[in-house]
Amino acid sequence: MSVATSARAASSPGRRITLGRAILYALLLFFAVLYLLPLYVMLTTSFKPLAEIHQGNMLALPEQWTFAPWREAWGSACIGLECSGVHGYFFNSIKIVVPAVLISGLLGAFNGYVLTKWKFRGHKIVFGLILFSCFIPFQIILLPMARVLGILHLANSTSGLVLVHIVYGIGFTTLFFRNYYANFPDELVRAAQLDGAGFFTIFFRILLPASVPIIVVTIIWQFTNVWNDFLFGVSFASGDSAPITVALNNLVNSSTGVKAYNVNMAAAMVAAVPTLLVYILAGKYFLRGLMSGSVKG
Amino acid sequence: MSDTASPHGKGVRERLQHWLPKLVLSPSCVLILFFVYGFIAWTSYISFSDSGMMPDYAWAGLRQWSRLWSSWTWGIALHNIWVFGLLYIVSCTVLGLLLAILLDQRIRAEGALRTIYLYPMALSFIVTGTAWQWFLNPGLGLEKTMHDLGWESFSFNWLIDANMAIYTVVIAAVWQATGFVMAMFLAGLRGIDGEMIKAAQIDGAPAWKIYARIIIPQLRPVFLSAIVVLAHLAIKSFDLIVAMTGGGPGNATAVPATFMYSYAFSRNEMGIAAASAVFMLAVIAALIIPYLYSELREPRS
């Protein structure tokens, strides 16, 4: 409830353009431009030939549009000694994201169900212990994890990263589902129990069909987190199995030769497009979930 | 609810139903116990051991810890995280609140503007770092653009200035996270009860006074959540610094997260790396545990 809302409701509904409103819109527009500027510069740079970048203005549109930087970033830019672009690493990221999101989401859903509808002594402590794992600085697990992945023969593999992302994703997925199911009426569960429905029947028939909003929130959150991860990727999968973020960093910050800014920006866009797309297509559900209080803290 | 099973009807099925919930929860618990709490213990032990390039579990007491605290780079890292964290938290909170209040004035195209403010949150820090490194590049970026526009004396070379580089990271980090804080405040604003506001309006209180006296005080829980989330993001900041400055120029933008990584994986000083990680965890735990405790107790009222 804002001051303006009630003020307008109280006063006449006429649409007067006051000085205050003008300043308000100017400010909002100013910030919108500020937030869009880096993306705009990234995009336009990725379509410019290198010569134009060195001579021209950063804010200008390309005089001569070219897709060559995108082709190079995707298929032939040199990352380390390999000159085949970022496409292999892009698919690595997909191979990591899909199983990691699905499995950690499923585990989180079950955990949330048990922790709200099948409470046992100490359920709060168990939840607290799981929740704390969301907040640890991951530096604390890097050394042992590198060792364990080596022992399991999962070092430098996408499967290893899937395992890492599942383990450290459980905290958030459990949090989301627990908070969502806490508001789900216990009476429905009890009624189903009296009808003889078991643990899994209740979950799959009653709770899961009503969970679409929180499933969307969980998938967006986990997808974004796993896709954007850099620390785990650079620590546990530096070679051919590296995710796109690691490849991008290696491409941009390798100091050999002339810096091809347009190729760098195209590669950055390739790395950004999946999460941007998810955000633009489904972001409003995420925000709605956030606002309904299902994502707390 | 699992206790509702009658005590004498203990068929196999019923007993299974009794244990099933715990059985379903147990894989996650085992994973968390081992990979989180086991690893915390493991890393803590390494910090008291002789481990260098290879793990060496001979007890070394506080040797690694005293080496950590006498490290010049660690001093810089601590100073930087303090500067970075403070500026980051304050800027994001103030700007996030401002944007939320502006958006809450029943404006047109609120959805579109919200999307614009929030989209950087979807980007990876590596992408953000790449973009801003280019944007702030002294030779070709903002500085050159301003010169082209006729502002010849404009100078912005913070990215390569050891004293200023950390502030470029703050700018990029604030750009990325403000939208998220805005969304939290917006949710908070929409949840405020309108009665008191109406009463104040009838009394003829000006809008700014209503915000300062009634609305913002009611947003206290949101402030707390936002600050906790931002503080923990700040301490974990690693990707953005690697992508933007690589910790440089020199060690100028080193933070504990990059310090730990370079000692663990490039300098082969596992013991010092472990000690720095334990320190990071201790700081975050001191912040998070009281917060989680109060959040989990709350529903009782």
From TrEMBL, chain A:
Localization in the cell: Cell membrane
Short name of any one Pfam family annotated for the protein: BPD_transp_1
Highest taxon of source: Bacteria
Gene3D superfamilies documented for this protein: MetI-like (1.10.3720.10)
Residues annotated as transmembrane: 22-43, 96-114, 126-149, 161-181, 202-223, 265-287
Lipid bilayer topology: Multi-pass membrane protein
ABC transmembrane type-1 domain boundaries: 90-282
SUPFAM superfamilies: MetI-like
Main location: membrane
Keyword line: Membrane, Transmembrane, Transmembrane helix, Transport
The family this protein is said to belong to: Belongs to the binding-protein-dependent transport system permease family.
Protein name: Sugar ABC transporter permease
Organism: Salinicola rhizosphaerae
Organism placement in taxonomy: Bacteria, Pseudomonadati, Pseudomonadota, Gammaproteobacteria, Oceanospirillales
UniProtKB/TrEMBL annotation, chain B:
Residues annotated as signal peptide: none
Membrane topology classification: Multi-pass membrane protein
Pfam families: BPD_transp_1
Segments forming a coiled coil: none
Main location: membrane
Keywords annotated in UniProt: Cell membrane, Membrane, Transmembrane, Transmembrane helix, Transport
Subcellular location: Cell membrane
TM region(s), chain numbering: 23-45, 81-103, 115-135, 164-189, 210-235, 270-293
Domain ABC transmembrane type-1, chain residue ranges per copy: 78-293
Family to which this protein belongs: Belongs to the binding-protein-dependent transport system permease family.
Name of this chain's protein: Sugar ABC transporter permease
Organism expressing this protein natively: Salinicola rhizosphaerae
